[in-house]
Amino acid sequence: MAAHNLTFIFKFLKIREVEKNHVYYFINVICNLVQTDLHLNWRKSICKHLGLNYKAYNSKYKEAEDSEHPRTVAFREKAEELIENFDELAKAS
Description:
mainly alpha, 5 helices
């Protein structure tokens, strides 16, 4: 499988202020797929590329993780579904 450089794409991504907590949460979810010793550097790098403040990461992903707002709950469910599908694909390959 070819590695893709997403740096060019990040220049065009615009994250709305109201969606930032969801993005921080998604970074946290995806980070669990990354090799453990690379977590910190990966999180810092992805936040930098997305124009997010890494210092806010821990509190912001927790806000989304703990929120009971219906939109946030639906977002978390979709993120978990995505990870489950990824795990199934990884096992099948």
